[in-house]
TrEMBL record:
Source species: Salipiger mucosus DSM 16094
Protein name: Carbon monoxide dehydrogenase small chain
Gene Ontology molecular function: any one: metal ion binding
Lineage: Bacteria, Pseudomonadati, Pseudomonadota, Alphaproteobacteria, Rhodobacterales
Location of the 2Fe-2S ferredoxin-type domain: 2-78
Broad enzyme group: oxidoreductase
EC number: 1.2.99.2
InterPro entries associated with the record: 2Fe-2S-bd, 2Fe-2S-bd_dom_sf, 2Fe-2S_ferredoxin-like_sf, 2Fe-2S_ferredoxin-type, Beta-grasp_dom_sf, Diverse_Oxidoreductases
Length: 161
């Protein structure tokens, strides 16, 4: 067992972890932050995307011990300070960018990383950036619209599929 200390959603946490404990397990089982979903455990689906030191990371590919001293953000930390949905979350709701909701936390975290790096992405850039995230319900069209809306762009230009 190794003690790790990190900041998760603005709160410092310190816990003893096994050397092989993945971040998904640490967040869900140790910190009870269950918004980070485990979809595949093979880095294929993107349901577990979190931000570590400002970079989007698939939490199923990272050991908890690797986050020693890191700043970690999860979907639970994305809401506004008053608890209301942030711009991206609200756009996902407004543009029906979710159905079952399983992939949504990873999609929102991925969208936040994209918009941080590219505040006005094109439809093609959004689709390319989402390549590592799988949604089995929506067909991605409304997810793309939601991300474009969150970036302040006109979504009427997106062709219907």
């Amino acid at each position: 067992m190794t003690k790790v200390t990190m900041t998760v959603n603005g709160k410092t946490v310190a816990k003893e972890v096994r050397g092989n404990m993945l971040m998904t397990e640490f967040l869900r089982d140790e910190l009870h932050l269950t918004g980070t979903h485990v979809g595949c455990d093979t880095s294929q689906c993107g349901a577990c995307v979190i931000h570590v030191n400002g970079q989007d990371v698939k939490a199923c590919t990272m050991f908890a011990g690797e986050a020693e001293g890191a700043e970690v953000a999860t979907i639970e930390g994305m809401a506004n300070a008053d608890g209301s949905l942030n711009t991206i979350q609200q756009a996902f709701q407004d543009y029906h960018g979710l159905q079952c909701g399983f992939c949504t936390p990873g999609m929102v975290m991925t969208a936040a990383a994209l918009l941080r790096d590219n505040p006005k992405p094109s439809e093609t850039e959004i689709r390319d950036y989402l390549e590592g995230n799988i949604c089995r319900c929506t067909g991605y069209h409304n997810i793309v619209k939601a991300i474009m809306a969150a970036s302040g762009q006109d979504v009427s230009a997106i062709a219907a599929e």
